[in-house]
Every structure is written in C-alpha cells, then in structure tokens.
## 1
Amino acid sequence: MKLKLPKPSFWLITLAVIWAAGIISVVYRFYNGLGAATNLSDQFPWGIWIGFDILIGVALAAGGFAVCATIYIFNLKEYRPIGRPTVLTAFLGYVLVIVALLVDLGKPYNVWHVITMWNHHSVMFEVGWCVMLYTTVLFLEFLPAFFERFRMVFWQDLFHRILIPLVIAGVILSTLHQSSLGSLYLIVPTKLHPIWYSGMLPVFFFISALAGGLAMVIFESYLSARAFGKGIEHRLLAQISRVIAVVLMIYLVLRLQNMVERGAFKHVFDGSSEGIFFLIEIILGYITPMMLFFNARIRESKAGLFFGAVLTLFGLVMNRLNVAITGMARSAGVEYLPSWMEVAVTLSVIAAGLFIFRLAAKYLPVFPREEKTGVHQPPLIEAGRSGKLAMGLLAGLLILVLAGFGYSLAVTRPNQSADAPQAAQAIAAESLEFPAPIEFVQSEESPGQVIFNHESHVDTSAPNCKNCHAGLFSIRASKAGAAAQTRAVGHDQCGTCHNGEKAFNYEESCDGCHMSSE
C-alpha cells in the first residue's frame, strides 16, 4: 500500500518556506547568539520577539478565560459551543509564547531558575509563574476533547467534575498576568512615550486583551467554517460582537480620559511619527470595529463580523507594537528594524499555531458537528470574495504599519535623543528624589571637608542616573583610609569630569570641592 502524501498547494509550499526560514534562523541564533541573528542591542533589548510574539500572543489568548467563565461560572450554557475552540486557541497561544520566549532569552537553558529561585518583588517572576500555571490549566481544560475523541468515558467524567475549579484558577491566573504585562512598562516613565505611558497600563492591557481574545473566536470560527464546514452558530458570534463593542467603548473612554488628565493629547497632533501611529491604532483598531459591531446589519453578516474581528485584532497588534517599539524608539536613541531572522521566527510561530489549530479542528471534536442556520441573512459582501477581501485589507494594513515603522526609524536618529518628550521629562522630575548628601572623610592635608550633593550635579529637567552610575563611578562613603579615599575620589571618580575640560580641574581648584571648616 502506497503512502498518500498531501498534494502540493500554494499554502502548503508557503508554510514549508516559512518553516525552513524559521528553523535556519533559530539554529543560527543559538549557534552565533542574539547579537548576530537580531538587530537588538543593550539600548533596545526588546524587539518583535517580545512586542509581537509575547505581548500579542498572550493577549490573543485572553478569550479563553472570558468564555470559560461565561459558560461554567455564570452558567450561560448556550455559549458552550464556543468553549473548546477558545480554549484551544488560548492553549496554543501560550505554548507558542513559551517557545518564542526560549528563542529570545539570552540563556534559555536557565529558564527553570524561575521555579527554584523566587523573587516575589519582580513583575517578571509573577508573569513567569502565571504563564506556566495557566498553560497547565488550559491543557487540562482541553483534555476532555481527547477523551471524547477516543471514548475514554471514565476520564471524561472525572475531568467534568473538576472543570469548574480549573476554570476559576484559569480566570485568576490569566487576569493577573494579562495586567502584569502592562506593569512591565510602569518602570520606564522617562523612556516610554507619554502617549502610551500611564499608571493605568495594567488596566488598559487587560481590557484590550479581552476584546482581542473574543475577536479571535470570530476570526477562527469564520476560517474554520470555510475550511472544514465546521463553525459556531452565527447567532452566538453576533452576541460576542456586541460584547466586543461594549469592551472597546469602555477601553476608549478610559484611555482617552486618561490621556486628557495627563496632558498627553498635545503629542497626538504634533506631527510626530508617534502621533501618526496612535491615530492609526485608535481609529482603525478601536473606533471603527466598535462602530461596526454596534451596527445590527453588520452583525447579521458573516463577512461583516469577520471584517470587524480583523480590525479589532489589528488594533490590539498595533497597541502592543506601539508600546514595545514605537513608544520606546525615540528615548533609546537608536535605530531598530527587525532582522529577517527575527521576522522569520515570528512568522514561523504564527504558521505553527494556524497549522496545529487546523489539525485539531479536523481530527478532534473542537467545533459542533453542524452549524444550524436559521433564516438566511444576505452578507454585505459576496461570500466567495469576502475572505480574500478581508485578507487583502489586513495585508494592506500590515504593509502600511511596516512602512510607518520605517518612516519612524528614519526620523528618530541617535542624535535626537535630547529631544525626548517634555512630558516624560516632567514626570521624571516630579518623581525624582535625591539621596542624602555624602560626606567624605577629611584627610590631614585636606583644606576642607568635601560633601557631594546630587542636586548640584543633576539636570532636573532631564535626569539620567546612567550618566554617572552606568559604569563611571558610584559615589558613596568609603571605609578606606582618608588619604587613600581622597586620591580615589579625586582621580578615579570626581576627576572623570573635573579634568579641566568638562568641568574645573580638581588639581588646580581645591576650593571648588573642599568647603572650609572654619
């Protein structure tokens, strides 16, 4: 008997090419290191492998906890057909996020340290543990699909009994780390552009992830229905779209109100690339799909639902890339454009997720067997062309984004780092707290006591601790002898600036530092 191989098709050949490029890139990355395979640097260490693969991958999986909570906690059983495809999407999303993270880490073989070396003060520690635990929970939630497929009745009944505790654990864990990903950027008020920096970032990340996760339900259902004839009842998808519209409205109100309170709106219309990217994000990715989903005629159309879901996903992608890349580029003072290997790995991760989802939808009871249709609703766009039109629009939007990133990099040069947003500098100045003055031990031959005061050495309009503490020196009281300390402070520390060029020469002007003890 001859083994039947799948016939080559355009999509199969494209998938093979993407995976080949991804495998080559991963091998090259592990053999030669991050510096050789990527365009990352110490000034810009997080690129698309964090901004896209991690932040977006986790956000798109947010529909899992929302739908499961609706079905099993709020006991709305009519949404049960949505449960498995949503859980599958979430599980694949988290697994691929972990894979992408292992590629991005400088020493991936040390990833197990988070399990044994606890640092409960770190946001990354909390995110790491929540991702591990929630991935396990999602795996357990999807196991009943295997039990049903292979008729393992005992195990199916057993997991049915513990499903609600699993769902509750999943809701808690997902809520924690969806918001904590936004908390990662709370520590960079002087680096993240004021358009996106806010103390409300954890809340914004959570709400936008909720909308994106629900949009993934519509997106995957539409494609699965076209590919396998298996989908979710249109009535349920229409109800989900109404929920997405409400979530988007809440997000927009909170986000815009917060920008007004922080005085960040002036940066939107200042002609900068950041303002342009923000307008693209808000108008195309949030306002437009919200208006579409509030329209009853759009909700009655499968093509309309799919189009709105694509725009919602586009908005989520733009938001995460804007926070991770656009909003950080100017303050970093460097140019970052992903290398072809970074792009290849990201595309490979996406392709792997779509391929595995396709296999699961084909061979496992993920979707209902038949989608019951009621009264025929004419689509806004011809059914045969709707998918191509939506995909073409999405491709056009992505091309526009990439072109915009190129423009952003062209206008954000290293010598423009001094042009960091004034709002970010104001935030830093308001929250700046100086250490107490440092008194150095006075030696016998010293004409007076030396006291180092941060206030006279720091530019409060643009504070940057790294100017001195990134490797130059660390001024502190020393336990060494007075004479040794005087020489060390004068030559190795203060003398790096007080050399007669940057500031007065410490050897020629003793009175500049030493205060008379009389």
## 2
Amino acid sequence: MSQTLAKDQYVVGVDYGTLSGRAVVVRVEDGAEVGTAVHEYPHAVMERALTTGPATGRPLPADWALQVPHDYVEVLQVAVPRAVAEAGIDPADVIGIGTDFTACTVLPVADDGTPLSELDEWSGRPHAYTKLWKHHAAQPQADRINALATERGEPWIGRYGGRISSEWELAKALQVLEEDPEVFAATHRFVEAADWIVWQLCGRYVRDACTAGYKAVYQDGSYPSADYLAALNPGFRDFVVTKLEQEIGELGAPAGRLTAQAAAWTGLPEGIVVAVGNVDAHVTAAAADACAPGQMTAIMGTSTCHVMSSDRLAEVPGMCGVVDGGIVSGLWGYEAGQSGVGDIFGWFVDTSVPASYADRARTEGRSVHELLSELAAAEEVGAHGLVVLDWHSGNRSVLVDHELSAVVVGQTLATRPEDTYRALLEATAFGTRTIVEAFQAAGVPVDELVVAGGLLKNAFLMQLYADITRLPLSTITSTQGPALGSAIHAAVAAGAYPDVPTAGSAMGGRTVAAYLPREEQSRRYDALFAEYRALHDHFGRPGPGRDTMHRLRRIRREAQQAALATSRAPSPAGAR
C-alpha cells in the first residue's frame, strides 16, 4: 500500500446489473465493506413494449431488451449517497470511485453524450434506447458478420472462437443501420454503458480496454477494416472512424476526476479519481483474488460469465474472446459464458410448478427454489431419467448461436417438478463443463473453478458443479463481487496499490476448495454428460437438429411479427 495514503481511506464501487445498480463503500486497507445500497431501475427491462416516451405502449419485436439510460444516473443519485450514509464515514475520506456494467450494453448518443432516447425527436424510436446485453434480435446481423469474416479469413475472428455474438456491438449497430437508418445517422457515438456512466462521472469519454476488446472486436490496436465493414453493408464502411474509435483506457487506470455535477449527485468530493470503466464479470476476478492463470471465475446469476487469465494465447472454439490485458495487465484475458442460468431456474418456478409446491414452501417459510433444491438433492444421480439442453436463452459458448432453444429429453407421466428442476441445474453445470473442456483441449489449463454471484448460496448447486466439472470449486467471500471488484479498481486508479492483482490479494478473497468433486457422483454424471454432449452436438452443430431449431425460431418470429402488424393495423371504418 502506498505510504502517502492515510490508513482510513475508502473507495466506492458501483455495479450496474440487469435490473438494479448496487453501490458499496470499501475500506482501502483491507477491503472491508462498510456500507451498501441498491437502487432498482424504474423502467427495468423493456422486452415487450416501450414503457416511456411518446410511444409508450408500442410493442417490441421478439428478442428485444431495452433500457432507459437515466435509470443509471439515478443509481448515482440514490444508491451512492445511501451507501455512504450507511457506512457512517466522512465522504471526504473517499479517494476514488469505480464502476462496472453488464456487457455488451450499448447506447447511441449525441456529440455531447446525451442519449438519443432523451432527445424529443428520437424518444419514440426503439432503436434510440439502450440495448441491454440480452438483446438478441441482431442474430441475423451476427450470422452475416461471422460468415463474411470466415469467408474473407479475417484475422480477428479466431480470437473469438470463430464466431461473435448477436449480443455484441457490431451486430447491434448493424441492426440499427438496417432497421432505422435515421437513428444510425443521428448517432455520434455508439457507447458501451460501462463507458457512458464514466463519461457522466468525469466528463471524459474513454473506452475501456475490456469492452473494446471483447465486445467491439478491438485486437492488436485496431478494429475490423473499413473494407470488411463495407462488404457487410456499404453504409457501415465508416462505422469505426465516425462512431466507434476513441481513446482506450487501461483497466485500473484513472479515466478522469469527479465533476462538480457528479459530486452533487453522489455526495462525494469533487475531483476524486474516477476509474476506467469495466465489465461486471471481469472485475469480479479481482474481488475473488482469482487473477492467476488456471483460475476460472464463474459469475453465476441470471446468466453465467466465465473469465480467466492466462500467460498463453490460444484460439478456443466458441469462446467470447481473448484480449491482451482484458482482465489484468500482462496476461491474456479469456471470456466465455452461458446466456441463461438463474433465468432458467426462475422461469421454471414461475411457469411450471404446481400451486401445491408454492403453498408448501409458503407454509414452511422458504422459497420455492429452496424447496425444490431440497427435494432434488434427495434423489440419486440419474434417478429422474432426464437430460436437458440449457439453451432457453440461446447458446453463448461454445456454439455462439442465439437461435438455439432448450430441449428436455426423458419426461414421462411420472416426472415430478423436482426432477425437472434438478435436470435444469445439471444442464447448466454440463454447459460449464463443456466450456472448461474446450479450454483444456485448446491448451489453456483450468485448475480451479471460482464461483461468485447470487447462486453460490445454493450449496446443493455448488456441490453439483464440483461433481460435474471434476474441479475443486472455490467461493468468493464477498456477497458484492462486482461492486467490490470495481472498488478494487478504484483503489488502483487512486494509487493505493500498484496493480489489480496486488489490490485483489489485499482487498478481495475466496474460500479455497469449498467444494470438492466426489468420485462416485462424478462417475455417474460422466454418463449423463455423454448424453448431454450427444444432444448438444446433434441440435447445436450444422445438421438436421440445428435446422429444426432454426426453423422453429423463424416460425415463431414470423408469427409474432404477424401479431404485431395486426395490433398496429388501423381499425376498419365504423369499427368500435
């Protein structure tokens, strides 16, 4: 720790999730979390219709997910002051603030950073709003991006496992160009929300190295070429130079200083350091003190993001990317992920569990998830006779195809809710094992699985993951992993530590090998995993299985578009 800093100094970390933002006040010396607060986004996620602006109620097509940028500012205005108040500290003792965001969550802005959705002339246009990470409607654009990159032998495509996602910036921006060229033309910059919120804090727009590399295809100092972009769409030729290029900030570096306006929002001292933005998953590696090669951190919540650093550069099929310094400086940062995990469990409880289970859980004073986990844990491995493909939100890794959907095999009239629930839990663990094996096969060792996120409180699920992956499973000690990780980066930006791994060792932590694989259970799971992989390849690889899934998606989309057109059609004259 720097000798120039007083002992009782603090940093603030702000974690922007899918539905809310969380602020945590952290002591620089040892990472103690002394205050925290959460602010729910008033507009949540707009998936079915716009819920704000002059076009409120306008239906949205399938696979859309939008947000309102001002909700992010409210987190600064509400959660940060509350966290500081709960901490009971003097705000003058705060030396820096760091933030992280879901990604790729991207918004179009005017030249001064104002979101287009906040300008009257664009507030009724869906494409003017923030596209959340799980906006998957750009899959047709992603398919073309991948096909053309492969055809042309673009050197960057291998750094993304051969395919980029519909969740990423190029696909989302191309969708805007092709579906609302007026919004595209009015856009001065397409900005990651991770960088936009830093812009609001310090008045400077700095692209962070993490989202630039993983979500905007920035490799070896450049983005995809103008010739390649023009081959996608002539109007896309100058996208990089006119709407994307910006100064790149190293992770853990200062982006600027807190402005007077942001100080008024947060109650923090004007002029303190604002760290370069980052991604929720990637900052969590530092919070878990898991920045060394071989440590794969899985941030398990609504989705799961798998991140790890390595001293080896390899092309891992289906990974989300490998970026020099993408997690910590001096190492290659790898990312993979699953688009749906906790979302799947929540969907099942919300839609597929009899009322009698909910009544029992209520009587016993616990959640339906807790009840189902207990019932499922009492079963022997394989007793339910089920195998599930965990593609309810498509597949992020290793197939990189959001047109895929879930499959349940083996249901009978004897199948009970806890059987299906356990099979869903197992399916997500099988998905993680598929990712781990892809890394191992590519020559990138994975020696330890480190879990963070809301799902680690389910001990049955954690043991299941250890058994299925055959890896020792460690758990982060903080319940605020991303927010703590952002605070750690703020401490480095403020000069309290020389680098992120050093700060992570002092301020973060994990319980090493909290769960160990059990050989008998692992052996039984190996047999189920073999069935999972057979289904995975049949429905996920090129062939009749994948064709069926893609056709079903197309049929669904066409039906929804027809319903949308009908809802917008004018009523016949005289109709009531």
## 3
Amino acid sequence: MKIATRTRHFLRAGWLTRGICVLAFVARAGADDAVFEKDIRPLLEKHCFKCHNAQKQKGGVNMEQFRNRAAFYHEPRTWEKVLVQLRDEEMPPDDKPQPTDAERGRIVAWIQHAFEDDSAVPRDPGRAPLHRLSRLEYNNTIRDLLGVDTRPADQFPPDGGGGGGFDNNSATLFVPPVLMEQYLAAAGDVLEKAKPERIFTARPDGATTKEAAARKLLGEFARRAWRRPVEGGETDALMTLFKRSDQRGESFDNAVKLALRVALASPNFLFRVEPAVTSTAAPLDDYALASRLSYFLWSSMPDEELFRAADEKKLHDPKTLAAQVRRMLRDAKARDFAESFAGQWLRVRELKTTAVPDRGKFPNFTPALRDAMMAEPVEFFQALLRDNGSLMDLLDCDYAFVNETLARHYGIDGVKGDALQRVKLADRNRGGVLGMGAVLTLTSYPQRTSPVLRGKWVLEEILDSPPPPPPPTVKTLSASDKPKDGLTFRQRFEKHRADATCASCHKRMDPLGFGLENFDGIGAWRTELAGQPVDAAGELVTGEKFAGPAELKKLLLARKDEFARTVTEKMFAYALNRGLEFYDAPLMRQTVKSLARDHYRVETLILAIVNSYPFQYRRGSDGIAVK
C-alpha cells in the first residue's frame, strides 16, 4: 500500500502515522498561533517556500504569506489544495527533498483540525451588491409578468461570468449605457405584445373614474413588477405620468402604458432591490426572501402563491419554506434552473461556441446530435430535482435520457422520436455525466480525444481540485491520434509527459482522462483506435488501478464527500449570486455532512441552501457579524 493511501486511512481512523499520535498532536496543538509557529511554519519553510514564495508563486500559490493561524482562514481553498497534495504525495515533486512520514502526518493533521475549528471563522452573510436581472432572469420575468415569450433580453449585451463561474453573479452584472436604451425600447415593445388581462385589471366605467381605474391597475402592476408592496408615493409618481398623458389627449390605454413603460425601466424592476440593513446584519423581509427563492429555483419573479406567503409573513417558517421549495421544484419553470445551473457547471453551453468537432473527422456530429447532447444533462438534472434523486447519480447510474438521434449515437436500440426519454442502460460505462456526449465532446480536440482535457475536467468539475496552468513553453501533441514513429498515441503521450516539471500535474490528470478513452471525440463508444485495442487502463496517484469508465466511476464514488463538496459549493455560489469566501467554509462542511446522512439527496442540498444564514440574511453597512 502506498504511503499516501496508508496515511489517509490512518487519519480517517484516528490512529498512528509512523510513530506520531495524530490525536495527541491535535489535542496539544489546538491549531493556535504558537503551534503553527513552532511546528508547522518551519516545515513549510523547509519544503514549500523555495517554490511557493512571494516572488516565485509556482502554480499561483504563495505559502510564505501564511504567518499565523488567522491567515489560514482567509485562503481556505489554497489550504484544501495543500491538504490534498500533501496527503496524496503530489507535493513536494518527486525530484525535490521529501518530508518524513511524521512531518507529512503532522502538517496534514494540523490542517484537518484547523478546518474543523468553525469557532475561528466569523459569521457573515457576505457581500450583496445590487443585483441586476440577468438576461435569463429578465426574459423569464417579462414572460411571467406580461404573458409574452418574446425574449427581448437575447439582444442585450452578454452577461459576465464571475466568482463561482455563473453568469448570475451580482458583482459582474454591470449596466453599460447602451443597456438603458435597450431597456426602454424593450419595455415599449413587450407592453404592446402583452395580454390585455395582464395589464388592464381595471377600466373606467360608470362607477369608476379614469383616475381611480388607473391608480388601481398601476398599483397592482407595480406590486407584481417590483416584487413587493408599493408605497403610496410610488403610485403617485406613476399617476403623475398618467395624468400628463391624459391631459394631452392620449387614450386611457396609451396613458397607462406610458406609466407602465417607466415602471419597467425603473431600478425597482431591473434590479432585485432588497431593503437596506443598517445594523451589522439582519434577516431579509419575506418579500426579499421570496425573490431570492424564485430567482434561485425559477430564474424568475415570485408567483401569486409565493406573494401570498410573503403577505402572511410565513416564508421564514421552515415548514412553509420547505413546502414552497418542493412545489417549485416540481413546477415546469424549474427547467430553467436545471438548464442554467447544470449547463454552466458542466460547461455544455460551449458546444455551440468553442467546442466544435471537425466535421471531416466526425461527420455524424450534426446540429440535431449537438442539440440532443446539450439537452441530455438538463433533462437529467431536472429529473433529479423532480424526483429528489441522489447527487451520486451524476457520477454513476444505470439510466440515461436520450432521443432517437442520441440513442443511435450511443448504440442504444428501441428509442424513437425527438423527445428525450429515460432509458435503462445495458452496462455502467455510459451512466452519469462522464458518459454524456456533451461532456466528452467539449473535453476533446476537434480531431481527437484529449486525456489531458478530460482529466482536467474531472479534477475541476467533479473533484473541485483544478491543476495549476501549464508552463508557457509546453508543447502539445499533434492533432492526429494515429501511430507515429512506431508509437501508439498513448505511447507518444507517455513520452511527451515524462518531463519532471510536468509530471506532478499529469500524473493526477492523465489516468482520469485515459479511463475515458473508450469514448471517441464526440462520445461514441469504441474498442479500437487506429487498428489497436483502446488502452483505457490507469492508476491513480493513491495507487488504485482501474480499466475503463465503469471502474473509474467506482473509484470516484469512493470519494463521495469530495464530489458532494463540489456540487454544494457550485450550487451555493449560484443561489447566493456571488463567489464563496473563507467565512462560507464551515457552512459548506456542515452541508456535506447533512447530505451524507440523507444519501446525498438533491432536495437536502437545496433546503440547506434556502435555510442558510447567507441566503436569509443581508450584510449591513457595519460589515461582519461575528459569532
């Protein structure tokens, strides 16, 4: 058994690591400054500072900056990487002096204890910049407010991607000047196309004056559009616009639409405005919580049932909130959550932009196949939401969602029609995201597969342990995967990555990628490559050997908590509209533990998010609230 594997087993069991009693060390250490200075920093200086200092920062890491325990909590992701690489003996590199087993165990134990000490981390709901509606949120809100499906925001400038990797990140949703012009134009256009009954909820008649009818319908519209009760002065401002148009001789309908156009161009509509918090931190009111919930699960405004729950001040009741979550996940509008979250996390949107296979090499890659590939992970994730499935199905399962085109590509018989449908799989090579054509295509080059891209994708999107960027002078292999100079593609690849400067990263990535070599550049199954049997065998850095996708997935399933942590962090970032910070780390760990106790059910994760402190609270002007 390799030392790394043995060390991990000992640490999990709480036993000895080559003569050091880890539990005794942790009990003595307490992860405080004195212990860090006496026992840990000297080891970092001895084995890490030469390559990871303020000047060199190899892999973008500066270990020299950590001078006390407090600094640890400001860079938890860095220390998570340090933990993994020390534990798995990836660092220091093989060509550098190695720490003894006792030294390695001492650092690993200190890091683990520091991560478990949640009392040292401040409680903070995080920054909440004014959130402009993203293009998806704008389109969906217009649809649900006015009953139109014209998607005007498709013509707006693209949304940026920020911390967490999602385009709904508040900090990157800027308002360029051209966008304000487009907002005004879009407001006029959608009002002309709106269903009459969505706007004119009151009209003047014998018993109702024009002003009374206008005030009623403008107040009702503004309440829905601005997603909160409207104050009298706000209705008065809209009424001023109506009266001016009416005095100019405009028809009742046109005078109302002018005021409505201004309402749709107001910051109250274009932004998710939340009440200001003057104290250190305070809970959201029910209307702001309703909006956070609806834009998380629907990418749209609250419906009338959510508004009623907010009116009755019931949304902070956990039972009411859970009932609303379950209702919303089973609504058709939850498909937008599946498409937005899964599409961005798994990066399958790139199939329409950067990941374009060579049609000469892969003539079967038609627009119909591409569209079916992009729809598969969305349908899969929506089914998890609807059925409260296990997140582990994303790693491995015995079913897939395919239509006739995609089934033919996968070699599955008996599927007819364009609609995606759930089918039972004959083997476990295909089930889960690693067997999806979209993922396999976007992690390939236009003319061949790429074990590096696929291995890197698994590290980043499954295990949340991305490798550092390659050196600028690194050379790539040719586009062809045919034998050359008497060497197969894999043999040429092994020779290419033999350089010691590249080996430390490649030994993590490449086995994962080669385990998927039975899938070609567009995800079709193959047993031969250039006349030779496909070699899909590999060995992880921890010593486990496997051959092919099914065995690789079994090994990944043994790391359930790492995958659960990845999905947890991704979904929290998506729900909170921001990147995660060091003070979010305890919540991530607590959520993963809750998931493990409930068999990793997706509903458990979503309920943990909506009941969490950062989801229900807003930071005030005074900053952080400390426990």
